[in-house]
Amino acid sequence: MRHVGTQAFGVRLPIVSQGDDLAGMVADALFDVARANNLTLRETDVVGVTEALVAKSQGNFASIDAIAADIRKKFPGGEVGVVFPILSRNRFLNILKGISRGAEKVHVLLQYPCDEVGNPLMNPEDVDALFDSGETLFTGAGFKKATGNYCHPFTGVDYISLYQEAGGNIDVHVASDPRRILDLTAHVLVAEIHTRQMTKNRLLKAGAATVYTLSDVLAEPENGSGYNPQFGVLGSNLSGEGVLKLFPRDSDDFVRAVRARIARKCGVAPEVLVYGDGAFKDPLAGIWELADPVVSPAYTDGLKGRPREIKIKLVADGLAGTMGSAEKTAAITEMIREKNNNADKECVSAGTTPRNYVDLLGSLCDLISGSGDKGTPVVLIQGYFDDYSSL
Prior knowledge:
By secondary structure, the chain is α/β, with parallel strands linked by helices. The chain is 34% helix and 15% strand. It has two domains: 7-58 and 249-299 and 373-378, no CATH class; 61-245, no CATH class. The strands form three sheets. A six-stranded mixed sheet has the order 6-7-5-4-8-9. The protein has a five-stranded mixed sheet with strand order 1-14-2-12-13, sandwiched between helices. It starts with 6 loop residues before the first strand and ends in a 9-residue tail after the last strand. It comes from uncultured delta proteobacterium.
């Protein structure tokens, strides 16, 4: 039996610029890491590459002016209501500035008590009093009067004021129901990430005349700008003054290219994925990390599906109390081998939450690489597809 299971290594790269051969850089780095650390690369290994590097190498950037141009096309009447954006300087403020520049009047509707990923707009202990007031739509000033001048506990930012001041044509309102935007305008841009389609459907059913989502904004290039046909400006991030880095496009082509280059350089073809935010919740802040539309926008075919596992601790507790440790180990090992040899065999997996491989692996990659100064935007994972029966 092997005594080590899954291992993950952060891999350093030089700073990546637009036009760089990123697939070749990843292959070269893995070759050097394996040689320097006496690692044996395997077909069952997984290589993760952060989405930021892919987008940068593509030059997938867009300016506030590009966003403004698309907003003018989508809202020719000049008025737009923006529903339930997340509270973020890096993620949304520049998008809002672009919306403001492309419209004559902007109504921003913030969600209380917190945004979609858990950023609080108010002290959560005061929420019952606010609900009991009977008010369903607050002005920004009215909400502050009812809840106090609340600032985000970690960033120290007053997001009502920040978004109000993003443009001279912006009015901020607050509600818990996205349909309240229709009290202000019939032309709506849904700014939610994961629940955008449900909210869009609710608004259309409630009588909205126009409804787009952020995935529709810059789904095509504007005057040579970057774009993303699937996610638009969802997954974008601040890159510089007035510039956003968009989520990478054509990522399926990229993961196949990386796999081919690694095979050519190293003699094995591991699985490859592009990863963004991990799908986990910070226990201190109570905020979901996943502000990208998906954990992984692209991955090779071997990463499709979900783990099919036996829950060892449940099985071990159910084995005969007279069995010793060695006997239980042998029995569980045999159960796992039978499961591996019979795809239709039912697994004892009660209590194991079903998750996609790419969500698990992408989250692991995000935790390993971080978003600070580790300098490891590539992650090598070994032994993930091993199990207790692996030799």
